[in-house]
Amino acid sequence: MNTIYPYLYTRGAFLKKKLLQGQDYERLLKMELPEIIKFLGETDYRKAIDELALSLSGVDLMEAALNRGLADFFRRIRGFADMQSRFILDTYLERWDVANAKTVLRIMFSDADREKAGLLLIPAGRHPAEYFLGLLKLPSIEDALRRMEFIDGKAREEAVSAYAGGKSLLRVETILDRQYYAAMFRQGKRMGAEHMMFKRFLGDEIAIINLKTVMRMRSEGIEPAEIRKYLIQKAGEDDAQLAGMLSAPGIEGMVTEARKGGYGKFLSSIGGATLLEAELACDRYLIGKYASSAYMNPLSIAPLLTIMFIKAAEVGNIKALVKAKQLGMGQEFIEGKAVVKCWR
After folding, report:
1. Model confidence over 122-133: pLDDT tens digits?
2. What mean pLDDT do residues 39-68 have?
3. Domain check: are 170 and 203 in the same one?
4. Residue 47 to residues 21, 44, 58, 274, Cα–Cα distance (Å)
5. pTM of the predicted model, to two decimals?
6. In total, how many domains does the chain have?
7. Half-sphere exposure of 91 (CA within 13 A, CB side)
């Protein structure tokens, strides 16, 4: 065991107390946007809100403050970690480079307002926001893809070809995701005793991503052969598991096949559920898996990874809550269908 883990556990436990709790969400559900901003200004997001309030307001302030607060939270964790733990955390945080790359590509594809791009970026990976803003200045999506140095050269060219062939970002984003997870599994081999735990984290994520992709695309009437192009193949995964999900009738049938393949007994409770309910169940399950691993392995890297994962879910919850309120959705719907309950 790494002798610094008791220290990391103590520091992590302190940061965990800064996460929003169930009663905080209950209060937020009853608030309008100005009240939400004021409330968050009294929490761990205070620094980000104070810094950004001079130039932003309303939804723009909320979006930027949440993103900056998330990146700052991750930096604090990274700051007190030892070298080996920092390597694991940095490897995990590379997902935000991929997320920012997708944001850049979506802005370029939709010809959205590039002046607001900085509000949408989460500079928590290896590359700062300025790097991604620089990509936005390039003349084409193909040029931006070729300049994404954190992506393997072969994957870059595959992404360029995929976009040139269909002018669709969905295939490109799948290639970026596959590249990320393949790189994570390779780097995981350098993590010593933590390798298997990190591998399980990634494996669970891939399983849930695939399950959600299949459910979403099947509900849109997309043929199984086409859906396969958008799945992330997990090392050692039995192809028959995915084949069963792809051919099963309806969400309930897909869920049944998923359970056979080890995608989680939790799914037994969502037979007959809507697509949204099934996706939320997937998210809750993944959070539960992280939390369980942290509980079972307190003197390891698991508690820090869990806190980071739940913090990201917290930011997603607040964004979903604000968006739902903007659309005029009722409190009951928001509580049951828009927010992933991740507090414990």
Report:
1. 999 999 999 999
2. 94
3. no
4. 20, 7, 17, 39
5. 0.88
6. 2
7. 25
